Amino acid sequence: MDLFLQQVVNGLSLGGIYALIALGYTMVYGIIELINFAHGDVYTLGTFFSLAILTLLGVTGVVTGPALILVVTVTILGAMILCGLTGVIIERLAYRRLRNAPKLAPLITAIGMSFILENLMQYWKGPSPMSFPKVIPNPTYAAGPISIQAKQIIVIVLAVVLMFALQAFVTRTRLGKAMRATAQDKDAAQLMGININTTIALTFLIGSALAGAAGFVSGVYYESTWFFNGFAAGLKAFTAAVLGGIGNLAGAMLGGFLIGLIEAMTTQFISDQWANVVVFSVLVLVLIFRPSGLLGESLPNKV
Amino acid sequence: MMRAAPLRSLTAKIPPLGKAAIVFAAAMALPFVHYNGAFTNFLVTAGGFVLLALGLNIVVGYAGLLDLGYAAFFAIGSYSFAMLASPHFGAHGIHLPFWVLLFVASGIAAVFGILLGAPTLRLRGDYLAIVTLGFGEIVPQTFLNLSQWTGGPNGIGTLDKPVIAVAGLFAFKFGFDPLPFYFTVLGLIAFAVWLKSNLRESRLGRAWMAIREDELAAAHMGINTTTTKLAAFAMGASFSGLAGCALAANLQLVSPDQFQFNVSIYVLAMLVLGGMGNIPGVIVGSLILSALDRLILPQGTNFLHGIGLNVDLTSSRFLIYGVILVAMMLFRPEGLIPSGQRKAELHAAEIDKNAAAHEQELYTEAVH
Amino acid sequence: MRTSLSRAVGALALAAALTACTNSSSTTTTSSGTTAAGGGAPSGSTVKIGVDLPVSGADASIGIPTQNGAVLAIEEANKAGFAGGKFKLEASLLDDAVQGTHDPAAGAQNVQTFIADSAVLAMIGPFNSNVAKAEIPLTNDAGLVQISPSNTNDGLTVGDDAKKLRTAHPDTNTYFRVCTRDSRQGLALAQVAVKRLGFKKVFVIDDNETYGKGLADVFDASFQKLGGKVLGHEHVTKNQQDFKALLTKVKSLNPDVVFFGGNTSTGAGLVRKQMADAGLGAVTYMGGDGISDDEFETVAGDAANGSYMTVAAPDATKLPAAKTFLDAYKARFKAPVGPYSANAYTAAKIEIAAIEKAIQDAGGKMPTRADVLKIIAATNNFDAPIGKIGFDANGDTTSPVLSLMKVVNGKRVTIDVITLKT
Predict the structure, then answer these.
(1) pTM for the whole thing?
(2) Could you tell me which residues are beta bridge partners of residue A4?
(3) C234, A128: Cβ pair inside 8 Å?
């Protein structure tokens, strides 16, 4: 039982990272129905930016005291801003023109963009995995028979908090309303006076900024990063978004945690080498039997 | 475009079959221009990928089903060949003749085409893409994991080479020389092109295009979308069975690393570059990308090394593919050699805008 | 279809032009740009040695120094007047890494390039065993001799597996290696674990690749034969980043030691790093030569300290005979040697000597690959910086030496030399 619970902890914290990435994915898909393959790579970029900022600040290990808050704030904000900008630029350069093109075009462009980002990162920091500073003190807490690290708690809590924050933003602010309107019906929204170009750009800004934050968190959590991380993580995060119901923020978070749990449980009870196969099989099964996901509504096939 | 006009009027007089024959004859003569084993070997691989591109073209180009996991079918076709033409299974292994295996492997691949295509039937564009992507990840990993049957990371090696035998008269065994492989591949390509041209004009082909343009409308017109889509997957997958046989027999090894996601995208990029949905476009796109990958980039790297620059271009190959994909989609989505139909589809928005502007003009004129 | 004909013909014309390209300047180069040929080769006769190693991506940190070893030997030969100045010796350097890691299909392609180039009389490489599996059938068919500085998988030279690789000519061996193999490496590691370090329970992890799985399987079997208990044996996935679930499972079984079969580029470093998070920080970590690169210390950080590994080569820095080599390497490349640089240097020297002898035997004319192969197969007591080298009938070295290393204060330190007679 203890082992099971410990794996639940592992699964939830892994899932928390997927959830953070999935939130951005689902936001963008909700608005322009584009699977932004490059999103996973923006997440890796977030880790790279964080590493660069930390190096600039001279951080190589754990930071203690009030300096910790400063370092974390500066780094996370820096990563978010830089990634947000990257997202906006990508949208402007590659996706905007293809908004009305058949689905094939933006999807292929997104894949191309993903390759480009991966290789640029490879040039920047080299092809080998690199170390990321610990940054935060990471005491381990014992909760009965299981042990949980501060890092793991932070990841899980952050995913939940950000989901609610985003939810509030989308439902209560004007901008959020504009985003929902655009997601529902682009042309109608435009007729109502909403500038959809700006709205979409802002969605990318927020989504990519979220990926940047996820990148920082991931760097601290794994204490390492690699240019190719984003591909697998992005794919699983998208699986999570689909599982939860694409376009649905709570669904993205839920899906993330579920995928993390599935991976951990498969590793424990079957073996590590089948974890990916199970996750992707789940993806396939969900899409066959309930394409709208766990929390999504079934949409009729409009003519 | 003006310069092509005289050539066009000249070539317009040659029937399509004649054109194909000319190209085919030129292709057969190609290795002899200045015989070079390495180049011929490159041609064999390039030819195999042309087959793959032609296969994917049926799924993506004709039927409009975005398949991001085509490497899965390539894996199935290749492993089918490897298991049935090597010392792998049992005491002495199974050794079906190559020519029989062309049918068997493409058949097996076709069956899996149906199996893996079935879950996608009710799905729209991007969801379908993601499911195929999922299969593209599941299949090679499964081959890797089931090491008892598939050799695991080592794959299956020492595959049988094709033998052309006429009972009692002679037996020509393919050896190390790539030339016989090249002619085999050319033959397969000729067959594939013939098959596809016929399919395209057939009812099935037209059903595919109808589905591609508007699935709902096609269904209402009486097209059985289920069988049509499954047929697309099956046919597309069967080509990968052919390619799998030829390439595996040449390379003498089948292993999971050959079938990763980047291969699926590599083949897709060939279609995007050359022109989805039309045969010459796909072939040209495939050849350009193969040349880029195996000739131009390594040569370029050697050249740069020669002048003292320690740059490795081959490791930038995915950057280049990425740029190609993005650039083509933004500026010329119909590909280098477009089919008129696709061009119209993809530029529909532009055409609408132009039409609207034109109407505006007429209106302004009329008013004044 | 009308413009397509002109385009198709154009494409073929382009292809024909490329043939000419490929022919004239094949794929030859040297990393320094030009080779100083002793006196030049008036008849334009060039002899090439093909070198296929992973020199880009995550394997580069160990691949490049290995390549440098070979290049150094070739450059020295030219400077000293190769074959009395009658022939020019060149290195044909190719990379078998794709998207960051060694790739068997790329290796096979490279070998086919070598084979098609008639000037290539011998080749060095590959570095990784799964690449060798793809290459050996090809070199066997073509009769091109190949010496690897670092392949350790058993199935490349001994047993049924090896026989199956020699498809075209089962009785001819074209594959040799100057390093020992995994049955010895795995056995040595198991002996160190059980006898020297006193461990009783191990959990084995591998990367599901030819080398990693092969070594792990040998270690697994040997550990059990020596009386130890193997608590579990799992395979990780390519590009996996999160090992916490796996390591939690491992922790629940309470091993004394964790063994990783594989390379840093396939997960060895990350696994070590995450062991601490899972509560396995105090458990010893062991691996083979796959973790004997600087990458391991970089990725695993502090956690790397206390890890044991073997290298299928003697430590060149400890051999007096290697001093000249080390000095020359440092002067030429201005960087420290890698664990396999000396091996590659030795392999190159063996090939160079064999080619020179073959030229002599052929009366100053270009020898055949078969001539070179015969001479190399008969290598016995060859003087090299890593000791005296000879090859047995299977292509294995007759004097297997392993170095046992430990990571101390972020650096690998040789703590013992192991010579097995199995």
Answers:
(1) 0.83
(2) none
(3) no
